[in-house]
Amino acid sequence: SFRKLYGWIDQPIKKGTKLSFAITANYVVTRFRGSKSIIITTNSIFGGRNIYFGPIFYVVGYFCLIAGTFFAVKHIFRPRKLADPAYLHFKTD
C-alpha cells in the first residue's frame, strides 16, 4: 500500500459537490500487479489530521536543545580524555 501526495485543495468543499479530475497514466503498474486510485481525504503531510503533532514536535525539540546545551557545557568544563583506560570497566569473576 503506497500513497503519494499529488496535490491538495486549499479551500473548503461543500458536501455533495461533484469533483472531476484529469488523469494521465504515465507509469505502467500492471507489471507488478499494482493499481491506481484517487483518495480524497483530510490528511496532512504527517498523515491524519492531528492537533497534537505541533506541540509534541516543540516539546521534543526543546528537550533536545536543552540536552545538547547541557552536554556541551559539561564537555567544556569537564572534558573527557579520548581513549582513557580509566573509563573501561571489565567484569571480573
Task: Explain the overall architecture.
The protein is mostly helical and 93 residues long. The protein is 27% helix and 0% strand. It is built from one helix and no strands. The longest helix is centred in the C-terminal third of the chain and has 25 residues, at 53-77. The chain is elongated and about 70 Å long. The N and C termini lie far apart (53 Å). 0% of the residues are buried.
- Share of β-strand residues: under 5%
Distance between the termini: 53 Å
Net shape: elongated
Structural class: mainly alpha
Low-confidence runs: none
Q: What is the number of helices?
A: 1
**What integer is the average pLDDT?**
82
Order of helices and strands: H
Query: Strand count, sense and closure of the main sheet?
Result: none
**Estimated radius of gyration:** 26 Å
Q: What is the strand tally?
A: 0
Helix content: 25-40%
Provide a quick synopsis of the model.
By secondary structure, this protein is an all-alpha fold.
Task: Map the helices and strands.
Layout: H1 53-77
Search tags:
93 residues; mainly alpha; elongated
